[in-house]
């Protein structure tokens, strides 16, 4: 039977990494996948992670299974990151968290619960959004609809279009929001817009699902939760998919969390029992190591401080690269005005480069960028900047 199966198309982002690896040109630049690179072009293990791993090596006494929902201390620490250490959502027990295999696993947990236990049929995602969102939600049988988000002419949030397209959301539909550092545009709502969106959502009865994969990459760990915390103020029910791949650099350890907030602790427990039943049937219980590392860090004040500093270092380096990129393009005589890139948040930037320009950058200059023109700014360094900008200027003509 297997020969009747047609080949799946390569994943647009991970497929690009494969092509990059196979490229034998010595001067090559990968700005495709969203992985943080330091000034040397490396993705090192964070120092604080190394310290926590040393502690774990000392203290770990068993490799026995975790519970279905995973490490409880980790779950509590995740909730404090999301809602704030003093939040009554955390102390009241209205929130329950399952340790999940990456943010992707958490999105899957959310979709499965919504489809199988809430009878939800539709999810609204921004246009554009992370390429894998559609895969995850469609695999669970959800119909994926888009709300407007990006204005390609002004290279900014099209807030009026966003609001008017969101008017079509029916009561009880899922609405996916990027907690911060919107992927792929790097453009987030401002504080007033978040507040208004939260009010509209509460009025209309949307079920918000926050995808929170870049906490700490926009302004700071606490500051970046502003949008979510606005929603948490006036929603009795919401869901969050956290990823710690980027902000702890734990990409291959698959560390994420699915958090459900209900009206009361009792309702939370009842609903969460079905989340657990879904996990049991899927991967039974989560892998331990990465979440244990995050838990050690977040439950130790000094290590938490160190982590904040390391996240700040990554954030600042990316911001510096944004500035240098815009300056170098200008110095090299770029026709376009790229200054909008300086105002964007997180790892990504929507460059405005066309599909043809992206193709030429790859074939003629060994510069790898996703077809949509999304650039991972985190892949830029002082060393590759000149070559990169000269290539872009060349394909502009
Ligand atoms: N959501 C968004 C917006 C992302 O960019 C990513 C990672 N690229 C994820 C979720 C998934 O993260 P993870 O690798 O932890 O599954």
TrEMBL record:
Residues 27-392 form the Aminotransferase class I/classII large domain. Its EC number is 2.6.1.-. Keywords: Aminotransferase, Pyridoxal phosphate, Transferase. CDD domains: AAT_like (cd00609). This is Aminotransferase. It comes from Alginatibacterium sediminis. Homodimer. Its cofactor is pyridoxal 5'-phosphate. Gene3D superfamilies: Aspartate Aminotransferase, domain 1 (3.90.1150.10), Type I PLP-dependent aspartate aminotransferase-like (Major domain) (3.40.640.10).
């Amino acid at each position: 039977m297997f020969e009747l199966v047609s080949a799946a198309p390569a994943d647009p982002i991970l497929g690009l990494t494969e092509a990059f690896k196979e490229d034998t040109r010595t001067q090559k630049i990968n700005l495709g996948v969203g992985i943080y690179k330091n000034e040397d072009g490396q993705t090192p293990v964070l120092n604080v992670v190394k310290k926590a791993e040393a502690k774990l090596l000392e203290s770990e006494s068993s490799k026995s299974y975790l519970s279905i929902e995973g490490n409880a201390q980790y779950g509590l620490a995740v909730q404090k990151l999301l809602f704030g250490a003093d939040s009554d959502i955390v102390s009241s027990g209205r929130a329950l968290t399952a340790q999940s295999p990456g943010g992707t696993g958490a999105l899957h947990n959310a979709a499965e619960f919504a489809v199988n236990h809430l009878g939800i049929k539709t999810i609204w995602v921004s246009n554009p959004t992370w390429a894998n969102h559609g895969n995850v939600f469609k695999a669970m049988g959800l119909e994926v609809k888009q709300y407007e988000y990006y204005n390609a002419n002004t290279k900014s949030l099209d807030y009026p279009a966003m609001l008017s397209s969101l008017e079509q959301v029916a009561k009880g539909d899922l609405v996916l929001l990027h907690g911060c550092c919107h992927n792929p545009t790097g453009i987030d709502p401002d504080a007033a817009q978040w507040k208004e969106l939260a009010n509209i959502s509460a009025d209309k009865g949307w079920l918000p699902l926050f995808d929170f994969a870049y906490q700490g990459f926009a302004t700071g760990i606490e500051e970046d939760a502003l949008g979510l915390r606005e929603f948490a103020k006036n929603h009795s029910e919401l869901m969050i998919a956290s990823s710690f791949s980027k902000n702890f650099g734990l990409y291959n350890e698959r560390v994420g969390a699915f958090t459900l907030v209900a009206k009361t602790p009792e309702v939370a427990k009842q609903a969460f029992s079905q989340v657990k039943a879904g996990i049991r049937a899927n991967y039974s219980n989560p892998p331990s190591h990465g979440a244990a590392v995050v838990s050690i860090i977040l439950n130790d004040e000094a290590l938490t401080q160190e982590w904040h500093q390391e996240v700040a270092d990554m954030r600042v380096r990316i911001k510096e690269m944004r500035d240098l990129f815009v300056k170098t393009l200008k110095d090299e005589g770029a026709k376009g005005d790229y200054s909008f890139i300086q105002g964007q948040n997180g790892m990504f930037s929507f460059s405005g480069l066309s599909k043809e320009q992206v193709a030429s950058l790859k074939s003629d200059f060994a510069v790898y960028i996703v077809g949509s023109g999304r650039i991972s700014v985190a892949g830029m360094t002082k060393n590759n900047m000149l070559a990169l900008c000269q290539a872009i200027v060349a394909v502009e003509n």
